[in-house]
Amino acid sequence: MDELLRTSIKFLAGVGPKRAEMLKKEIDVESFDDLLNYYPYRYVDRSKFYRTNELLPDMPYVQLKGYIRHYYEEGNGRQKRLKAIFSDEYGSIELIWFAGYRYIQQMFPEGRQYIVFGKPSYYLNSFNMPHPEIDTEETASMVSGGLVPMYHTTETMKRSGITSRKIQELVYKLLKSTRGKIEETLPEYIIKHYGLPALPDAIRMIHYPQNPEELRLAKYRLKFEELFYLELKLELSKEGRKTRFLGEKFAVVGDYFNSFYLNHLPFDLTNAQKRVVKEIRTDCGSGCQMNRLVQGDVGSGKTMVALLAMLLALDNGCQACMMAPTEILARQHHEGLSELLKPMGIEVGLLIGSTTKKQREKLLPKLASGELKIIVGTHALIEPNIIFHRLGMAVIDEQHRFGVEQRAKLWIKNPNKLPHVLIMSATPIPRTLAMTLYGDLDISIIDELPPGRKPVYTEHRFDDNMHPIFMFLHREIKKGRQVYVVFPMIEETEKADIKSLEEGYDLYASNFGQEKVTLVHGKMNAREKKRVMDTFVSGEKKILLATTVIEVGVNVPNASVMIIENADRFGLSQLHQLRGRVGRGAEQSYCILLTSSKVGNEARKRIEVMCSTNDGFIVAEEDMKQRGFGEIEGTRQSGKELMLKIANPASDGQLVAITKREAASIVAMDPSLTLEHNVVLKERLLWLDRNGQEAYSNIS
Ligand code: ADP
Ligand code: MG
Q1: What CATH class does 48-144 carry?
Q2: Mutate which of 555, 558, 582 to test ligand 1's pocket (most atoms within 8 Å of Cβ)?
Q3: Which residue's alpha carbon is nearest to atom 19 within ligand 1?
Q4: Which SMART domains does the UniProt entry name for this protein (predicted)?
């Protein structure tokens, strides 16, 4: 069967070499197998025939049975069109074409009975149907009587005659000629246990379902299969890593950890923080390398969890590092950690792009000798010339896409065993989606905010009436609070955006006084940014105007108001991240989403979500609903990378969980897939590999 399904599509009657090339380019369909797996994007119900006198304005696609009475042409030049009177026993409508007149009249001679299918349109008190699909009784057998598939096509495809209808025909032919030759790809025990239809049936039913139930079954089976093989690959590679990659074994919890925990912890940990610390301890004590992702909403206290993990490394004779995505954030972590660890006499190093040569000359030898135990920095940390004595714990802050390759650069920082890797992310995505996207990571979730946090009060306001907002800001500033004002910036170089930031500065400065207002954007160099941020952190400046450079991680608990200008230009997850900058102190905080009075529908919906909830996971789910999987911040393209054609880890969460469990139990019992009933799994994996679906190596 292998060979048959891998036959080039050019050998299918009606395709040929030219169209084959075009199909490859347009929709990546190359072989018989590809075409069978080119699934419809929707179905139209053609089990019902309408009468011409039943039509209503605004109807979707309908089919009618009747006679083409006669053709006539109207207009000249560009206005020219072909019309036909089409009638059944109950009345008549007009069919209209703007091209292909000759062909149509030749193919469908007057006076005969046809089935026409299209979207009726209502004009000057009568109905017409532009460019209908036309069938004779014979050709209709393929389309009428059930759900008819519609396939995505591109303009190029249509130009060379490959319409959705043409694909229907090709698939129909292919299904006929491959009947009995498609082999099962899942083991029988799985098919039985989950009540799945056999593969050949599922493929037939996904293209030509007789009824909605068949369609449901087919979808279930095909989604199951996609997710199952994805999970199987992830489980196999995880299993491989476990046995191959020995990590530092943190056998003891010692003085560093205990003395900090007992004497210097500034607050009680939340239960969620405790749970995650425990998960980390278990991982690190196992002797295998930890690769763990900690997901927690903004402000959930990930930093403290990271610090405790780092102290655990110190207790076991290792060093630890924390890597942040920006210099601002690295500096802030450096300051925060230094302060917390000062009472214990632990020095914290800082290494960022702007660290001078002289500073490096002091820092690097101490790192190499092991005298310096903790260092914070940016990507500068993974440069090859940065040598650690024995790195045991690497914390990666706010970079959930920190991939396998990048992680590997950390591995050589320990001469003997692999360092543990702890990745922190404030991009909350539903667990099932995370499991699939970051399948090679274990996941911890901090699903609890520190006590006393008041939810940020969020409101939508129009920017043509700033007076009440300014009054409000005056009151807040008088109370000692500080304010962020964020401007969208598509690209930091975009002149119009910089201009609106500068105009904003003028407006705020004239209302609040220059001495209270400052401004930071991505075009400034690191030193300037730091200078500006310092004046805000210290409380000297009351209002910080910024582009999204402040998006991740910045922590100024005294700031209680977040104003987002042109909020309609931000995505949901970005809005949520920005809002997370406030609400970090004990005070009531506010987030004001500004837009002009003309807001598009989509943007309005996003703003409504923001005003209705503070929960990052709900925001993420709404985001996914509105934009669909694959458009979510940080997961863009993942669908494609994962080679998923039909399953959607976001909305098929339950199936992800089921298939993951099944895959894990198979790998636990038969890690090399050599048991007789698992042979089909191994064969299928090989087949997928040979056909370029190396899903695993692409994600992470
Ligand atoms: P994020 O998860 O966004 O990185 P941070 O680690 O920056 O959050 O923590 C946000 C704020 O909450 C910090 O000021 C931190 O000191 C404080 N915090 C963290 N954990 C607790 C806790 N258990 N109780 C009280 N405050 C906490
Ligand atoms: Mg953080």
Answers
A1: mainly beta
A2: 555
A3: 301
A4: DEXDc (SM00487), HELICc (SM00490)
What residues sit around ligand 2, an ion, with C-beta below 5 angstroms?
553
| Non-local CB neighbours of 383 within 8 Å, separated by 6+ positions | none
Cα–Cα distances (Å) from 424 to 296, 303, 678, in that order, read 8, 9, 37
CA–centroid distance for 48 within its chain: 39
Q: What is the pLDDT of residue 276?
A: 97
Predicted pLDDT of residue 632: 42
Distance 304 CA to ligand 1 centre (A): 7
Examine the pLDDT at 8 and tell me if it is beyond 50.
yes
* pLDDT value for 492: 55
Ligand 1 atom nearest residue 296's Cα: 2
Which atom of ligand 1 lies at the shortest distance from residue 303's CA? 6
User: Domain spanning 457-631 has what CATH number?
Assistant: 3.40.50.300
For the chain, the structural domain boundaries read 2-44+163-182, 48-144, 186-244+670-700, 255-446, 457-631
Helices (H) and strands (E) in the chain, counts: 27, 22
> Parallel, antiparallel, or unpaired for β 126-130 and 291-296?
unpaired
Residue 299 CA, ligand 2 centroid: distance in Å:
7
Report pTM: 0.66
> Hunting for tokens 């292919």 — which residue is that?
174
Ligand 2 centroid distance, CA of 658 (Å): 32
Q: Do domains 48-144 and 255-446 have the same CATH topology?
A: no
